[in-house]
Known about the structure:
Blueprint: E1 6-9, H1 14-22, E2 35-36, E3 60-65, E4 68-73, H2 91-98, E5 114-116, E6 119-123, H3 126-137, H4 142-156, E7 166-173, E8 178-184, H5 194-200, H6 216-227, H7 232-235, H8 237-245, E9 247-248, H9 251-264, H10 268-274, E10 286-287, H11 290-302, H12 304-308, H13 311-322, H14 329-333, E11 338-340, E12 343-347, E13 350-354, H15 362-372, H16 384-404, H17 415-418, H18 421-429, E14 439-440, E15 448-456, E16 461-469, E17 513-517, E18 521-526, H19 532-545, H20 551-556, E19 560-562, E20 568-569, E21 573-576, H21 581-589, E22 594-597, E23 607-612, E24 618-622, E25 630-633
Amino acid sequence: MTGLTSAIVDPFHLREWLEHATRGRRVAVHRRHDQVSADRSFERPGGALGDDGGVDAGGAVVQVHAGMVRCADLDMQRGTSRRSDTMTLTREQVMTRELQDTEARAALPPRETVLARRGMVASAHPFATQAGLEVLRHGGNAVEAAVAAAAVLMVVEPRNGHLGGDTFIQVDLPSEGRVVALNGSGAAPAAATLERYQRLGGIPEEGLLSSTVPGTVSCWGLALERFGSRPLAELLEAAIAYAEEGIPVTVRLHRLLGLDAPTYRKYPETARVFLPDGRVPQVGELLRQPDLAESLRRIGTGGPDEFYRGALAEEMVAFSEQHGGLFSREDFADHRTEVLEPLVADYRGYRVYEQPPVSQGIVVLLALKILEQLDLPRMEPGSVEVIHLLIEATKLAFEDRLRHLGDPWFCDVPIAELLSEAHARDQARRIDPRRARPAAMPRQRQPDTTYMCLADGDGTLVSYVHSLFSGAGVVMGKTGALMNSRMLGFDLEAGHPNCLAPGKRPVHTLNTYVVRKPGAWDLVGGTPGAHWQVQTNLQILTNLLDFGMDLPNAIEAPRFTIGDQLVAGDPTIKLESRAGDRVIEELRELGHPIEVIGPWDSGGAVQLIQRDLASGVCRGATEIRRAGSSVSGI
């Protein structure tokens, strides 16, 4: 085969590569070890896969090699050297319809849906997944398991959520026919006036002046009060043990600590915890957080009151006063978690539930309502047409978010109008199928968030997300609490619905979703990723609901994220290279400023659990792009 043109093509693009590269000529492909092969012709021009799993590549050999599909020209008699391009085809089509029972299925590591009946946890770290499963195994419910797993995540992923962060939860109760949303986000201190921050020239990127009152501990307490029976102290035991004894530093944690090290070095208490001996811990070394362990123990004994009104609150406020912060005892004592009705939208026969404001989860529903006006299910997943419509619907949804969204305690958000059919039709008419439109997009921050979902044997599902936003970089003295920088979510434009004000909560990137197919199944899912959360969630939902992908395929399909501009303009679209050269070029021709990123480099760490209502069996899947993501059941 010397002198042949060859290309490495992943299975998402196999069919289109063959059709493009071979121009429909007859194939001579051999079945040998580690090869997909056939020696036959087919009626369909351009090559197809036969009933026996062979490939009519019209003059190409298709070989599985090193986790990819290798394609090479065989048309040696004509002496031609045809172009070998990566083209677009979804893994859903290739791997489930066209390559079934062939050796080419080995082109990607097998990722089957995880099945379980008594309970399931999907999270960003195996220690958290194990902690949640232990609660379920010993008779706990999904809400109790979520608290136990979330506390462990503070230890193993400290920058993605800690005692100083915020939490949002949705609890799906199929037996009661309802979904409940908990908003555990904190407000700006009473001393955080607009004039103060205007004099500063803006909200600092780090330090205590970037922090709101933490909401996570309060959210845990209210969730357990409403839906749990086990003592908080019992649920925190695993996290306390990990924090006291230490956890081995993974490659990922080592890298993240290295990225944060310049900030941590500015704050002695933070450096003491996360840069022991003045350096980033090496892979395999133990990272201990004994102060966090002690605070968790005190919270377990005293409950949320210890954190908001007790000695812990006193210590944190004292530290704030000594280090230029604005917090008062009243700021902590006045904090409260809201229990709300989630936002809900019907979409092609499904019911989709999202977090209400101050979460920007409405962006997902706004985009879905726009897409419902369009014939997405009849289009090819991963095609130029589909990606273009997803991008344009997302832009329009963000325009509404930037124009209307704010803290409902301070402003009226026109939810009914925004989610109306009339508004969806008007927005859909604004999409030009032949041209990208400019848009205003919020500026991206560090996606310091983690998401998990859980299910128990009684049918309760939990969709859980917590975050530090980009992280203030400050540990509150001996409390061990790493603080958020959620103040950066405010606008400083007077009169804007999201303008900073004392006691006000900023619009929040955190969102979770629940989906119901009435009489069939319920599903929970989500992802971290700042403003990319709603974008990724939208793509996952369309993969599932419009294109019928199974859970792993919905996660693995190529993704895009819209970039980080602050003002109106064509934001950069980061698109995984697996989308294919033709798709990328045609999107650019439509006016999209595409930045091609690595094949698996899109942000996010998606977790999904789906529960069949008749059998009670749960199906789960976890992110392929994030090392450490895990899903398991009992």
